[in-house]
């Protein structure tokens, strides 16, 4: 696996941008101004900046919605480059389809404007309904604008000024960090890399790559390293999903899975008097049949030692249980100390 797939450089990252804006052109699905006063104030303020005086500020429009606009400013983004933006409704608008985002300044954490967003919204969800039923698919109050923002200010960052760089592993691990260190030092035939901890590798830029740091990073990213990972089993009990890592092992253990099934059947019968009887009436008499299956015929099954993932899966399938029952089996095996892996239940 390439180094670029498992690491990231500490200073080469994106920055979060955020802004507040208005979406116009909605077909009557915008904010109710009586419920969202900030939308009304924003409309009035915008019109006043454009030289439009409003003698009566009691607006009744339903074609405007207040939204929050977010974007990621990539590293080394230059003036005039376009970036994607996401738009999310703030008020009680029900659908942003058909709307257009007006010019919205996007600010970074330092309070400076780095981009301005504007454009036609693209909404993946939809909502429709009538008097007796309605349907909603996706989230129609969240939208996006592809290449909807233009960068107006660049981050003050010059890669060639760096004399050393710090790499971070996306999945921290001491073994992987040492392998990355060894691969870099071997390729450049010099001890320029050092693993500081399980997630950080510090690299000194060689003299021949001074003022050519981009080329140096390109060669480092192309190096191949086999990452190591913890033996881990991840269980999502809500969906019944089980993910087992390749290094998961179990010791030999005996397993049985038993459950009690109770079946209740109602079979009412009709009771009526004999023919031509002078007394009596026809009534319905309840009859209930209850059956209990306590799995009394279930037997212990030996789950052999599994040195590979394939043998582990084959052993679990040999028990003839479904995914939900496999979750219980894995939890019990872990409690017995036979599952040699980290068990994560979400």
3D structure, described in words:
The protein has 346 residues and is of the alpha+beta class. The chain has 3 domains: 14-151, no CATH class; 158-221, 2-Layer Sandwich (Ribosomal Protein S8, Chain: A, domain 1), CATH 3.30.1370; 230-346, no CATH class. Helices cover 18% and strands 34% of the residues. The chain contains 6 helices and 23 strands. The protein has helices at 3-6, 37-49, 174-188, 213-221, 309-318, 323-335, and strands spanning 7-9, 15-24, 65-73, 82-89, 100-107, 113-120, 126-129, 134-137, 142-151, 164-169, 193-195, 200-204, 232-236, 241-244, 249-250, 253-255, 261-266, 269-271, 283-285, 288-293, 301-303, 339-340, 342-345. A 6-stranded antiparallel barrel has the order 2-3-4-9-6-5. A hairpin with a 4-residue loop joins strand 13 and strand 14. The radius of gyration is 33 Å and the shape is flat. The two termini are 28 Å apart. The model has no long low-confidence stretch (mean pLDDT 82). This is Flagellar P-ring protein. InterPro entries: Flag_FlgI. GO terms for molecular function: structural molecule activity.
């Amino acid at each position: 696996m390439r180094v670029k797939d498992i690491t990231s450089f500490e200073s080469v990252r994106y920055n979060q941008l955020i802004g507040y804006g208005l979406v116009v052109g909605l077909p009557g699905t915008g904010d109710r101004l009586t419920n969202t006063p900030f939308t009304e104030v924003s409309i009035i303020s915008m019109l006043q900046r454009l030289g439009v005086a409003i003698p009566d500020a009691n607006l009744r429009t339903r074609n405007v919605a207040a939204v929050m606009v977010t974007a990621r400013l990539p590293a080394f983004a230059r003036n005039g480059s376009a970036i994607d933006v996401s738009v999310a409704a703030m008020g009680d608008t029900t659908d942003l389809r058909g709307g257009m985002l007006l010019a919205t300044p996007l600010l970074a954490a330092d309070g400076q404007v780095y981009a301005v967003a504007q454009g036609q919204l693209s909404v993946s969800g939809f909502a429709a309904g009538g008097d007796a039923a309605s349907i909603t698919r996706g989230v129609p109050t969240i939208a996006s604008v592809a290449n909807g923002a233009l960068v107006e200010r660049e981050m003050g960052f010059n890669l060639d000024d760096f004399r050393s760089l710090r790499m971070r592993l996306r999945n921290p691990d001491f073994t992987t960090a040492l392998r990355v260190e060894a691969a870099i030092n071997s390729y450049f035939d010099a001890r320029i890399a050092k693993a500081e901890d399980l997630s950080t590798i510090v690299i000194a830029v060689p003299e021949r790559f001074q003022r050519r740091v981009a080329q140096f990073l390109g060669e480092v990213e192309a190096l191949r390293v086999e990452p190591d990972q913890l033996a881990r089993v991840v269980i999502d009990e809500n969906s019944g999903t089980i993910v087992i890592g390749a290094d998961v092992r179990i010791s030999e253990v005996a397993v049985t899975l038993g459950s009690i099934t109770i079946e209740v059947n109602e079979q009412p019968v009709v009771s009526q008097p004999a023919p031509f009887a002078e007394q009596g009436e026809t009534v319905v008499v309840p009859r209930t049949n209850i059956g209990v299956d306590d799995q009394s015929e279930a037997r212990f099954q030996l789950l052999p030692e599994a040195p590979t993932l394939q043998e582990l899966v084959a052993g679990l399938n040999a028990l003839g249980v479904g995914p939900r029952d496999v979750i219980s089996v894995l939890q019990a095996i872990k409690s017995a100390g036979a599952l040699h892996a980290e068990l994560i239940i979400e």
